[in-house]
């Protein structure tokens, strides 16, 4: 039974299966024409609801909690918004000849995204790290990401697939579709915050369901534009390899910095919050920033990276937990020896 439970960590969860199903469905039965226009309005409404609920769910106390540990939070932000983009830019000479412009734009877009919230905190909990600090770092990363991600995307991504990048229209779209619903959610938190907290499954369904809607629409548009004809299997394999190398590099840096400058509990926060990228924030922001036909290619690296980071971080969290168990056993050994004597 223990072996089966261990193997389950390597299997994709239902959310990932739903995303894969959306891609397959879009590949076989893409939405197009007038139906695609109507579907786009539905998707926009779902995105607005997603960020409204994020605003209503995110506690201001959670943001303030642990804020005094500024060195840890600063390191997480530097890893998320500086280290990742620098690695992405450094890879340009190596990858431009192998990846399509849209896929490389997707890789850079992945690099400028904020950290995850739920999974970063969950893995920190499994690894027995500093949970309040993880809540603060992940929440702060997502809050700043609403502003920093579009700015960095406009500066770094020079491709015709970008819908204006840092242009006024893109900024207005971000304000209307993401920031405004988020602010309204924060305002409404005093009335609906307890209800949102009492219905986590419903909120999770809306959260993940809206992302599945976006993925289906994005890949439908891309399939109509000839995504699979223009993206050979070798390119997909390369995206998986590049994502693995990118994650390994950032994990190595955050682990080294955490081991050198922080206690073990804070090191865990830096490793998980500093190395993960948010699919929940990334796909809706990509929906605003990138033109329809290119969107599927742009979010493909993010979706590949998302699954890889879940598998790798699950293994790392378990190893951290086993390390704590060994430390506890070592601390208890002398007392046990004395009692036997």
The averaged pLDDT comes out at: 80
Shape: globular
Number of strands: 0
Percent of residues in helices comes to over 70%
List the SSEs and their pairings:
Layout: H1 2-8, H2 14-28, H3 33-57, H4 60-64, H5 70-90, H6 92-95, H7 101-111, H8 118-126, H9 131-156, H10 168-198, H11 200-224, H12 227-230, H13 233-261, H14 264-275, H15 279-289, H16 292-340
Gist of the model:
With 341 residues, the chain is mainly alpha-helical. It has helices at 2-8, 14-28, 33-57, 60-64, 70-90, 92-95, 101-111, 118-126, 131-156, 168-198, 200-224, 227-230, 233-261, 264-275, 279-289, 292-340.
Structure explained in plain terms:
By secondary structure, the chain is mainly α. 83% of the residues lie in helices and 0% in strands. It is built from 16 helices and no strands.
């Amino acid at each position: 039974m223990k072996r089966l439970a261990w193997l389950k960590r390597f299997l994709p969860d239902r959310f990932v299966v739903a995303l894969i199903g959306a891609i397959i469905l879009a590949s076989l039965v893409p939405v197009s024409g007038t139906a695609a226009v109507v579907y786009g309005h539905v998707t926009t409404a779902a995105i607005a609801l997603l960020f409204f609920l994020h605003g209503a769910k995110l506690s201001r106390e959670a943001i303030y909690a642990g804020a005094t540990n500024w060195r840890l939070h600063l390191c997480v932000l530097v890893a998320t918004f500086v280290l990742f983009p620098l690695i992405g830019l450094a890879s340009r000479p190596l990858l431009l000849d192998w990846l399509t412009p849209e896929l490389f734009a997707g890789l850079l877009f992945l690099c400028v995204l904020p950290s995850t919230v739920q999974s970063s905190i969950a893995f920190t909990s499994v690894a027995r790290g500093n949970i309040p600090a993880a809540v603060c770092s992940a929440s702060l990363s997502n809050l700043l990401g609403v502003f920093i991600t579009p700015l960095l995307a406009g500066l770094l991504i020079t491709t015709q697939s970008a819908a204006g990048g840092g242009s006024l229209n893109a900024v207005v779209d971000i304000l209307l579709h993401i920031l405004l619903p988020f602010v309204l959610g924060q305002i409404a938190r005093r009335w609906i915050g307890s209800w949102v907290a009492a219905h986590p499954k419903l909120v999770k369904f809306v959260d993940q369901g809206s992302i599945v809607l976006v993925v289906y629409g994005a890949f439908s548009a891309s399939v109509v534009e000839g995504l699979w004809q223009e993206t050979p299997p070798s390119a997909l394999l390369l995206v998986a390899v590049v994502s693995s190398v990118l994650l390994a590099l950032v994990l190595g840096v955050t682990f080294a910095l955490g081991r050198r400058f922080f206690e073990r509990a804070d090191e865990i926060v830096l490793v998980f919050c500093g190395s993960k990228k948010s699919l929940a924030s990334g796909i809706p922001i990509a929906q605003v920033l990138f033109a329809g036909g290119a969107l599927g290619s742009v979010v493909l690296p993010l979706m590949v990276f998302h699954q890889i980071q879940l598998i790798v971080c699950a293994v790392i969290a378990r190893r951290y937990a086993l390390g704590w168990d060994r430390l506890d056993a070592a601390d208890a050994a002398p007392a046990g020896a004395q009692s036997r004597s």
